[in-house]
Specification:
The chain is 7% helix and 35% strand. The protein contains two helices and eleven strands.
């Protein structure tokens, strides 16, 4: 199959994901939401890299499960961000993996899911639609064809 005839894989209707150890699992229904890359210092610290790749999804489509019956493995860490608002990051207390974030000021009613926690070939169908805090983006990192914001500007649209 030539590159011109190759098709982008279809995004599954239900996406499954988990933390690194699998003690904290989730299901995401209704598609991917809005895929974003954020370069703010909070996301850099959380990811341990230069950016965090996330999917902003409707909270009602996000369901958490505890395969070993231990909901206490989910811990919340609240921190102020570069924009001055508080965000809640939810992570596994066993392996330390951040699974999702809530930012009620910029993304009310939404959950910001760490895209690297998604299963099922995410690298074939996840593509960012927006970049945030591009003023902190490394010059050598090229992401083309997406909306860019130098800082956080208003709500992250659905």
């Amino acid at each position: 199959m030539s590159a011109s005839s190759a098709q982008t894989p279809k995004i599954p209707e239900t996406i499954h994901g988990s933390c690194l150890c699998g003690a904290f699992r989730y299901q995401l229904r209704g598609g991917l939401g809005k895929p974003v890359i954020c370069y703010c210092s909070s996301c850099q610290m959380t990811s341990g890299g230069f950016f965090e790749a996330d999917s902003v999804v409707d909270e009602k489509n996000f369901t958490i499960s505890h395969p070993d019956g231990r909901p206490e493995v989910i811990k919340e860490y609240i921190r102020s961000t570069d924009s001055g608002v508080l965000v809640s990051r939810f992570f596994c207390s066993v392996c330390g993996c951040t699974v999702y974030t809530k930012n009620d000021e910029h993304a009310p009613g939404m959950v910001i899911v760490a895209s690297g926690t998604m299963k099922g070939g995410v690298e074939g169908w996840w593509k960012p639609e927006m970049e945030l805090y591009c003023e902190r983006k490394p010059e050598w990192l090229a992401v083309e064809g997406v909306a860019r914001n130098e800082r956080m500007k208003g709500d992250v649209e659905r």
